């Protein structure tokens, strides 16, 4: 089995040596272990440090494209390099490398497609009570949206099988952590977790400029992804208040019209007008959901076609490489 540990980095020259020093040199069930550093447009000495420390692969992005883009670029590179298992860790030395063995065990055993390191955030001393609460609430929302059982949805320390890496396509630009879990749940991939601990922080988070900003962007990401994968249900939820309000107003009209002859006709006509309008709006919103659901089915078909195409291209590339090696080794 070929394992590649990918490390997205943005100006991590100071902490990268600490990350690399903790990575295991060999693991049970792994015949080939390599390290990939993804330079996300760093302006410091990250690349030079990686080269000096003998990193196997360095992928340089043309500019700072963000953590989600760096993660996806790393997956593409690992697949092309023939990785059977990909482990993603951060360049800020948050996650101890000694847990990589525990992380990949369910993948190697065929028990999971994705394994996420559970930081047990309720025990992290440097997390404020508010941050712990938000982490638990956010993970609960992701569990509901993805139909998975992930206790720590924002953990970036995760292992992916080759199959999972082939099927996942990160669409958002903010963070990959939430999207990949929701995608995995909707695509039927098995997601598991293993408990880990974390190092003390070496710097302030670049992803979370403030608690409110993080909550806003994460909530927007979750809502967008839920609507993307469950459009009919989402639009039905949006249509329900309009349809219910309109129905109540129409029932009010019929009640007073039939049982109260003294009621003002003008006020009753207002109920009919407003109620009919609300029901019409609710129906139109629901109709948008039907159209979006049809588009979602087409998207799912396109994703399956893309998956098979990527799998075939990588298989052909691997076969060509194997044949070239055999020719070179012929006496």
Task: Report the radius of gyration as a whole number of Å.
Answer: 26 Å
Largest sheet: 7 strands, mixed
Q: Which residue ranges are poorly predicted, with pLDDT under 50 across at least 5 consecutive positions? A: 322-329
Mean pLDDT: 84
CATH C-level category of the largest domain:
Alpha Beta
- Write out the CATH superfamily name of the largest domain: Spore Coat Polysaccharide Biosynthesis Protein SpsA, Chain A
User: What is the CATH topology classification name of the largest domain?
Assistant: Spore Coat Polysaccharide Biosynthesis Protein SpsA, Chain A
Please report the distance between the alpha carbons of the first and last residues: 28 Å
User: Structural class, judged by helices and strands?
Assistant: alpha/beta
Shape: elongated
CATH architecture annotation name of the largest domain: Alpha-Beta Complex
Q: What amount of the residues lies in strands?
A: 5-15%
Count of discrete domains: 2
The tally of helices reads: 10
Major sheet: arrangement of strands: 3-2-1-4-6-5-7
Percentage of residues in helical conformation? 55-70%
SSE arrangement, N to C: EHEHEHEHEHEHHEHHH
Q: Tell me the total number of β-strands.
A: 7
Can you offer a commentary on this structure?
The protein is an alpha/beta fold. The protein has 2 domains: 2-229, Spore Coat Polysaccharide Biosynthesis Protein SpsA, Chain A (Alpha-Beta Complex), CATH 3.90.550.10; 231-329. It has helices at residues 16-22, 46-52, 67-80, 100-108, 129-146, 162-167, 176-186, 211-229, 231-259, 265-329, and strands spanning 2-9, 32-39, 57-60, 85-88, 114-118, 158-161, 191-195. The chain has a 7-stranded mixed sheet with strand order 3-2-1-4-6-5-7, with helices on both faces. Helix 2 links the parallel strand 2 and strand 3. Helix 8 crosses helix 9 (231-259) and helix 9 (231-259) packs antiparallel against helix 10. The protein is elongated. It starts with a strand and ends with a helix.
């Amino acid at each position: 089995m070929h394992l590649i540990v990918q490390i997205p980095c943005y100006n991590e020259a100071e902490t990268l040596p600490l990350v690399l020093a903790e990575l295991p040199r060999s693991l049970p069930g792994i015949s080939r272990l390599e390290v990939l550093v993804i330079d996300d447009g760093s302006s410091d000495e990250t690349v030079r440090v990686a080269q000096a420390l003998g990193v196997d692969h360095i992928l340089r992005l043309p500019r700072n494209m963000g953590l989600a883009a760096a993660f996806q670029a790393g997956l593409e590179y690992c697949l092309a390099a023939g990785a059977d298992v990909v482990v993603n860790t951060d360049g800020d030395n948050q996650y101890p490398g000694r847990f990589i063995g525990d992380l990949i065990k369910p993948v190697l055993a065929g028990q999971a497609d994705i394994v996420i390191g559970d930081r047990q955030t309720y025990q992290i001393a440097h997390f404020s009570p508010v941050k712990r609460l938000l982490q638990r609430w956010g993970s609960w929302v992701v569990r509901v949206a993805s139909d998975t059982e992930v206790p720590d949805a924002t953990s970036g320390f995760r292992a992916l099988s080759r199959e999972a890496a082939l099927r996942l396509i990160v669409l958002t630009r903010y963070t990959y952590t939430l999207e990949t879990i929701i995608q995995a749940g909707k695509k039927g991939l098995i997601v598991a977790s293993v408990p880990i601990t974390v190092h003390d922080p070496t710097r302030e988070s670049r992803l979370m400029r403030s608690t409110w900003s993080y909550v806003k962007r994460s909530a927007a990401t979750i809502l967008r992804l839920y609507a993307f994968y469950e459009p009919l249900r989402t639009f039905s939820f949006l249509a329900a208040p309009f349809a219910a309000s309109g129905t109540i107003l129409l029932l009010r009209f019929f009640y007073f019209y039939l049982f109260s002859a003294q009621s003002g006709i003008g006020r009753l006509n207002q109920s009919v007008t407003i109620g009919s309008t609300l029901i019409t709006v609710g129906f139109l919103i629901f109709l948008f959901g039907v159209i979006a659901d049809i588009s979602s089915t087409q998207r799912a078909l396109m994703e399956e076609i893309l998956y098979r195409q990527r799998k075939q291209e990588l298989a052909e590339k691997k076969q060509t490489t194997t044949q070239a090696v055999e020719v070179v080794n012929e006496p």
